[in-house]
Amino acid sequence: MRVRATVARCASYAAVGAVTIAAVWHAFGTRASAPLVAASAEPAARTAASRAATASVPASAAALPASLAGSRAPRLPVDARGRLAKQRAVRDFFDYFLLAEHDLDAAALDAQVARAIAAQLDGTDAQHDALDVWQRYRAYRAALGQQRERGGVGDGRDDPDALAALLDGRAALASRTLGDWCTAFFDEEWQQQRDRIERLRIVRDPALTDAQKRDRLAALDALRPAALRDADARLQRQRDALDAVARLERARGDTDTLRAQAAATLAPDVAARVVKLRDDDDAWRARYRDYAAERDRIDAQSLPREARDAQLAQWRQRAFANPAEAMRAAALDAGRDAAAAQ
């Protein structure tokens, strides 16, 4: 038996960019998620902001950020009573928007989600439910990030007991923040993770021979429900697609080469999305180069700091019609200024 192959199933996966994940999104309908052993790499979420009233957001802010451009949010499920149905699809809806959390500040992200909820559920009880659950989910992610900062979420990637304790802690946190929604959001994922922990426990047991490990792993396979096997197969397809897209992104060839390579390795809809995202990214880079040339001209005037910042802000708003792109440019400028000050 190749014990290493089993350990590899529990190994962590390197994070890929939001553009890569967004490209895979539409092929599978859900965000590609990593197993628990990789979950310690999950970035800390921004602190949840106060709920943004849909009507208070200017129309210009409703444009999708670059990481979601050209895509559509999943549908929110509603039950027979007109309330938000307790299904994993609700988390998928929220995770779709969280792909853009590095493009938007907390208030802007809340506003995007509020608008998307209103577009599907305006004036219904389900709309109120969705806004409430969104804030609960944000609270869960913020608390999880705080645990990581305090050292409450460690690695322990090869320690089954540490992983089991980590999973129990996350389940308790989810129960406190999400209430009975935690089952709909995480139950399938937790089952998969418990199964992987048990497999890791077998593989790491020094008292077992390779033959005994084979037998115990086979016994686990025989007991696994069909839903769990299907979920693993779906997750593997997601990982394969993410790996393929990441390789194409690293190659960074011209658009025609990318189109040919994507068509050869990916499903048609994913391949088309990858090419579109590359085109969008190239267009953004061109706009930013033009913007940066004028920014450097303003810098060369040696204006007082306030006057220089005001001119840059005005130029940034003219150069980038999409507020998310303007925010991205401002972040790049801030990083450039910080590096220059060192």
From TrEMBL:
<dbReference type="GO" id="GO:0016042">
    <property type="term" value="P:lipid catabolic process"/>
</dbReference>
<keyword id="KW-0143">Chaperone</keyword>
<keyword id="KW-0997">Cell inner membrane</keyword>
<keyword id="KW-0812">Transmembrane</keyword>
<protein>
    <recommendedName>
        <fullName>Lipase chaperone</fullName>
    </recommendedName>
</protein>
<keyword id="KW-1003">Cell membrane</keyword>
<dbReference type="InterPro" id="IPR004961">
    <property type="entry name" value="Lipase_chaperone"/>
</dbReference>
<keyword id="KW-0472">Membrane</keyword>
<keyword id="KW-1133">Transmembrane helix</keyword>
<dbReference type="GO" id="GO:0005886">
    <property type="term" value="C:plasma membrane"/>
</dbReference>
<comment type="function">
    <text>May be involved in the folding of the extracellular lipase during its passage through the periplasm.</text>
</comment>
<dbReference type="Pfam" id="PF03280">
    <property type="entry name" value="Lipase_chap"/>
</dbReference>
<keyword id="KW-0443">Lipid metabolism</keyword>
<keyword id="KW-0442">Lipid degradation</keyword>
<dbReference type="GO" id="GO:0051082">
    <property type="term" value="F:unfolded protein binding"/>
</dbReference>
<dbReference type="GO" id="GO:0006457">
    <property type="term" value="P:protein folding"/>
</dbReference>
<comment type="similarity">
    <text>Belongs to the lipase chaperone family.</text>
</comment>
